[in-house]
Each structure stands twice: as C-alpha cells, then as structure tokens.
Amino acid sequence: MIRTVAIQGVKGSFHHIVSQEFFNKPVDVIECLTFDEVVESLISKESDAVIMALENSIAGSIIPNYALINKYDLHVVGEHYLDIQHNLMGLPNQTIDDIKEVYSHPMALLQCMEFFKAYPHIKLVEDKDTAEVAGRIHKHQLKGVGAIASVMAANIFELDILAHSIQTIKHNETRFAIVKRKNSEIPEDEINKASLKFETDHKRGSLATILNVMSDCKLSLTKIQSLPIIETPWKYSFFVDVTFENYQDFAKAKSILNIMSQGLKILGEYKNAKL
Fold first, then answer.
1. Under DSSP, is residue 40 helix (H, G, I), strand (E, B) or coil?
2. Helices in 157-273 by DSSP H: which ranges?
3. H-type helices in 141-246, by residue range?
4. Predicted local distance difference test score (pLDDT) of residue 275
5. H/E element holding 187?
6. Which residues, at least 6 apart from 254, have a Cβ–Cβ distance to it below 8 Å?
7. pLDDT by residue (tens digit) across 14-58?
8. pLDDT higher than threshold 70 for residue 141
C-alpha cells in the first residue's frame, strides 16, 4: 500500500496536484528540491512511490528523468496526464501594474512569454519551483512580486490570481510517471502499456528491424526517445512506450526483442491513462 509519496517541489506544485488526483486514498507528501532527492527518498525507502514528470506537450521529453529511472532500476507503475494552467498571482489587493518582478521556473516563464510582452515593466526572473515562489511571497509578504503557479498554490498560500491561464498555448499537458522500486502488481489483463529501454548495434536498419517486430506483434509505438550512452561515444539507448490490447502480444514481443536488441530492460508495465 502506498502511504508516502515524494514529489519535486512543494505543496501546490503540479506534482502535488498529481499526487492528489492519481491515488484513491490520501497520501503523505515528501517535498524535495530536485528529482535526484526524489529518487533518493525512494531508494532509501523514505517514500513508497515518487512522481516524476516525463514529458510536456509543448516542451517535449524531460530526458534526465528517464535517465534516473534507468540508472537506479526503478519501475513505472502508472501514469497521469495533467492539464497545466499557469496563473499570475501576488499578495491580495494588488493589480498587475503593481507587480515589478515575476519569479518562476524557467519552463513556466518560457510557456508564458507572450503574455508578458504586454507588460514590459515586469522583470522576469528564473527560479527553482513555481509553487515555492508563491510560498515565499506569502511567507515574507513580498509586495510587487508575482509568481506563476497553479490555482491550488494560490489557495494554499492565500494569494490573489491577477491573470488566469496565461500560457501561450492554452492546451498544455504534462505526462507524469508514478514510480516504485519494484514493478506493479497489476493483473496482466489490466496492463495495456509498457515502457522499455534497449540498445542497438551499428548495423544498417537495426532500429527499423526492432520497430517492425513491435508492429508485427501488434504493439503501437506511442513514444521513442534516444539518450546517449556516456561510456560509449556515439552509441545510444532508446526509451520506448508501447500500447497493446492483449498482454500476450507484448509478452511475445519481449521474448523476440530480448534476442534482437541489446540490454533490453522493462521500465514499467501499467495502465494506459490516455485512452
């Protein structure tokens, strides 16, 4: 049973929102500054599971998190998609004209750049976490300072939202992985998605051959991401997500890929959250 979950960021962050939406029962949340700390809490058994953002519909893959899951032999046991809505907030009784500086995570600033072109008097400053900035504004009662964060963060830290949904692209979705030390106990008949990692040799068509095996076994490729193998220059690992209707098709593919690819690793078998 999962009782304690580690997240990157503080309460009110998007990782925190996922922890509230994904699990059927309330969980205790451990706040971590970095994803390395998140993973360390899992390895040390301080947490039962962790939540890690893997990709964003605008910004693409968060490659270091794939590397962490692989490096420490962790397992994806579930996924959750969250609609990311960025909101400008500050202390009560202020207007946008009162805000002189806005601090937020670089990704949030990038996704809201178009909005701030209409407010050239506002200085944008990169910071480590969206919700943490909101908490700092509340704690130190910082007038003239704004944060970009979730509605939950505004509620927790008693801030007023000065502008709703300020991201340039309104449909902005992030995929989060729920990660544990061991693979999930989900029954086979409920598993319809998997994350794999493998390597190929330098022969022409090696990757295409493996992708054809997946297709022949009725697997649908939903993602493929390459990552350099640091110890071997110009050689790459491939991280792949596949969906399927019948687990036996996936089992057949695994047995073939174990022979045809190098270093095959199953990073997770779980339910597809995007049906």
1. helix
2. 206-216, 247-260
3. 151-156, 206-216
4. 63
5. none
6. 264, 266
7. 999 999 999 988 999 999 989 999 999 999 999 999 999 999 887
8. yes
Residues 6+ apart with CB under 8 A from 72: 39, 42, 43
Structural domains present in the chain: 4-82+173-180 (3.40.190.10), 87-163 (3.40.190.10), 191-269 (3.30.70.260)
Q: What pLDDT is stored for residue 52 in this prediction? A: 98
Contact between residue 130 and residue 9 where contact means Cβ atoms under 8 Å apart: yes
d(CA 175, CA 82): 7
Q: Which value, in Å, is the radius of gyration of the alpha carbons in the chain?
A: 21
Question: How high is the pLDDT of residue 2?
Answer: 84
Q: Which residues are registered as beta bridge partners of 113?
A: none
- CA nearest to 269, candidates 213, 215, 189: 189
Asked whether 165 and 154 are in contact (CB, 8 A), the reply is no
Beta bridge partners of 90: 160
Residues 129-148: what's their mean pLDDT? 97
Q: Are 99 and 118 in contact (CB under 8 A)?
A: no
Task: Give the global pTM.
Answer: 0.91
Place of tokens 């997946």: 214
Encoded tokens for 52: 């890690």
